[in-house]
Amino acid sequence: MPLLRIQIYQPQAHYRIPFTYSRRHTYPIPPYSTIIGFLCNACGVDDQNMPMYKSIKELKISISGKFRLKITEMIWFRNVSKEAHVGSYGSLNNREKNGQICHIGGQSPIKIDVLEDMELLIYLYHVEESKLIELKQKIENPSNRLQVLHIGRAEDWIVYKSIDLLDDSIFEYKRKDGNYHYFTWIPEKILSVNGSTINWDNFDGITYILTNHSYIEDYEENRNHTGKRCYEKVKAKLNEGKIINSKCVFDKDLDIPVFLGDL
User: Dihedral of CA 231/116/188/43: which sign?
Assistant: First the structure.
């Protein structure tokens, strides 16, 4: 059973919770769709008919992470509506303020939660080892990347700490109660590893409906890779590190529980 383990450091990160506006809240770790988007970026996948996209869709994914602290920043968001422009300049035909020509529209102050010193631990499984080897090569040498490698906002750049191709001997199925100090998504459908039987109901955590894979509306008709994106959803618990009263799969190297989502 081949697996790819990726350890990532981010100086800052924001993984936006949808439908938060005047204050933009963040998940403590990225949802599945954010990691899938990162993989597509690194592999240069901008067409949902590319073979590499099929390989990424077939992955089983585990996401864990921790951060040093959370801060709240104040930023400006621009509104380019006519009403916002008139509110800023008094007239649609005016763009001058304090003797300077300024950008059209108006600005609104927005609070945004930012995670400092983020450490991510991502596990990827594919039934074909060759697919993981190809993925590892593209992640390590992203010569066809679509943008600068980031997870979250475009400015949330990443640093690889390690990228390791492993087999399932790295995993141990056992009960070991404790607080592992990592936030972890525990998906409702967990891939069985080494004969493991894991009951989702036995684990603590707030249940979220997370985005995972997506498709572009009317893509076959217009081939517009920036068109409206429609997301599939998956149910997962956000566990804060406390694992008790249940067996699960552990990474023997790092002594961290791993929950591969069968998305």
Answer: positive
Asked if 63 and 239 touch (Cβ cutoff 8 Å), the reply is no
pLDDT in tens, 72-90: 999 888 888 888 888 888 8
- Tell me the pairing of strands 60-66 and 106-125: antiparallel
Residues in the chain, total: 263
| 85/103 Cα distance (integer angstroms) | 9
Q: Which domains does the chain have, with CATH numbers?
A: 3-258 (3.30.70.2660)
The pair of structure tokens assigned to 73 is 């920043």
CA 181/CA 201 separation, integer angstroms:
20
Q: What is the pTM of this model?
A: 0.89
In angstroms, the first-to-last Cα distance of the chain is 17
Q: Are strands 256-258 and 100-101 parallel, antiparallel or unpaired?
A: unpaired
pLDDT tens-place string over residues 43-64: 999 888 889 999 999 999 999 9
pLDDT of residue 71: 96
Pair 211, 233: CB distance under 8 Å: yes
Residue identified by tokens 């493991």 is 196
- CB burial string 27-48: b at 16+ within 10 A, e below: bbbbbbbbbbbbbbbbbebeeb
Q: Which residue has the higher pLDDT, 219 or 91?
A: 91
